[in-house]
Structures are given as C-alpha cells and as structure tokens.
Amino acid sequence: MTILAASGLRKSYDGRAVVAGLDLDLERGECFGLLGPNGAGKTTTLRMLLGLTPPDAGSITLLGHEVPRDAREARRRVGVVPQIDNLDPDFSVRENLTVHARYFGYSAGEAARRVRPLLEFSALEAREASRIEELSGGMKRRLVLARALVNDPDLLFLDEPTTGLDPQARHLMWEKLRTLLREGKTILLTTHFMDEAERLCDRIQIIDGGRKLAEGSPASLIAGHIEPEVVEVYGDGAEEWLEAHGRMLASRAELHGETAFCYLQDPAPVVASLRAFPRLRFLHRPANLEDVFLRLTGRDLRE
Predict the structure, then answer these.
(1) How many helices (H) and strands (E) does the chain have?
(2) What pTM did the predictor assign?
(3) Strand 252-256, strand 259-264: pairing
(4) pLDDT 10s digits, 171-192
C-alpha cells in the first residue's frame, strides 16, 4: 500500500530551481532513504511533503490526503524528528512528552498513559524528571524520537537523526529504528552517513540539483553503479604508483588528495603490485554505498 506519493515536484527560489521534477513513493512498512549532498533539495522536498512549503508544481498524497490542501489532517498521523533538537528546555523529559501529547488533543490521563511506554522505549525511565540540559546528546536524540511517536504515527520523517552522536549512541538509535520497522512503521530517512542508509533502508533515492540521479535498494545501487572491489592506496609515492601501475591494472582509478582509489572487478593484480611497494599502505574492501554516492554526486565540497 502506498503511504506517500509525490509526482513532478518543483520549487524555485529567485529563479533558481531547488527541486526540479522529483517523483517518489513510499510503501507501508519500508524505510526509504532520500540522499544527496548539501544543497541537493532534500530539506525543501521534506517541507513540501509535509505541507509546510507549497510546491510550484506537482502533486502530493500523504496518508490518503492531498497536500498541501489537507496537510494539517495528514500530519496528525505523522511523526517528525528534525535535524536539530528542538526540545523545550523549561520542561523535564516527561513534561516534553506530555505537553506534545496534549498538542494532539489527548486528555491528561491518556497523555500520561502514552508517555510511560515511550520512556521505556527510549531507555529514559530513570531520567524522566531530568531537565533537558542534563541529558547527553544521545539521550536528547532518543527523546526527540520518542516525542515523534507520541501520536502513534503511521509515517516517520527522520532528518539526519544520528548527526553528532558517538558510535555507541548511533548503534542504539539504529536498533530503535529497526524495532519501529518491525512493528510496521514507515520511515522516510535523510542522512549523510552512507553506512546508516545501507543498514536501514529498503530503498534509496539519490538526488542532486533537485533531480533524481538513481533509485533502488542499496545492493542494487552498488551492483549497478560501481565496480565490486575497491583498493585505496595511501602514502608517499601513491600518485607515482597510480600513474605507473594502478591505471593499467584497475578498471577505473582516481586520485583525490594523497589517496588513490582503484575500482576493480578483480583486485588480485593491484594487490600483488602493491606488495612490491612496502612504503605504500593500502586498504582492500568491497564497494559500498558511499562509493556510489560519490560517483554520482562528485567529490567536490558542498557548503
């Protein structure tokens, strides 16, 4: 069942196209990743999907409601985890959840009943009386996620949910998100962590300049857009080795900074060559989603 569908979305500011004919659809129970570099149009797309920014053209159906016309009604069944924590510092952990529940029209008793399992889900039962400034970054992100669940939404919008978290907190957040997916929730995820998208997403759409570059499962994107093996070469002399040997041995090779990247069907000849250059260090690994992302969107820094 399609839970969110958008067709031909367009949005321009001052004559510059930010979103240029984007289509997407989400099926119930899947995690869909919307990936792109800074300035690719992700935030504008999310705002249009939520009915916060009107599109210049295109159509959006969210949970059976036409957006932006019926956006307020549709958002009653949506939870949002914003990129930046916007918890109320004047309230405790419990109060942040309770007040948010009251926004959805729940009585004081019903709000209290909803808060207890959310505290348990986010592993914050022992901190329910704590002020927001007393929480770690990981605790704050878990609380924002719990708050997004207070209305038992069908669809979650997660905008870079693990930015700023240490590895332990990221892994805990991933486990919480997998639990929600097993329970049948649908997730629309944006992230700059390609390993996060590869772990969580059933399907991914990569965009840049407001246009779709590719779409598919992580495995299909890797198989369809990049060679299966990668050897990264570091150290003094990497550029010289690349020009003398690497470009002849690799299917495709690139130099970025002091690192040579060799993309290969068969890594054995490159690895054998590198054994003769003990001053060089190298890493042999399978291709991943980050390789695909960089090939499609480029390696230039986006501000």
Answers:
(1) 12, 14
(2) 0.93
(3) antiparallel
(4) 999 999 999 999 999 999 999 9
Which residue's entry shows tokens 């093996």?
229
Q: What is the mean pLDDT of the chain?
A: 94
- What are the boundaries of each domain within the chain? 2-222, 227-286
Which helix or strand (DSSP H or E) is residue 272 part of? helix 268-274
By CB neighbour count within 10 A (0-12 exposed, 13-18 middle, 19+ buried), where does 92 fall? middle
Under CATH, which number does the domain 227-286 receive?
A: 3.30.70
Pairing label, strands 186-190, 16-27? unpaired
- 247 burial (CB, 10 Å; 0-12 / 13-18 / 19+) is middle
Q: Which residue's entry shows tokens 């916060």?
A: 52
User: 2-222 — its CATH code?
Assistant: 3.40.50.300
- Rounded-to-integer distance, Cα 75 and Cα 65, Å: 10
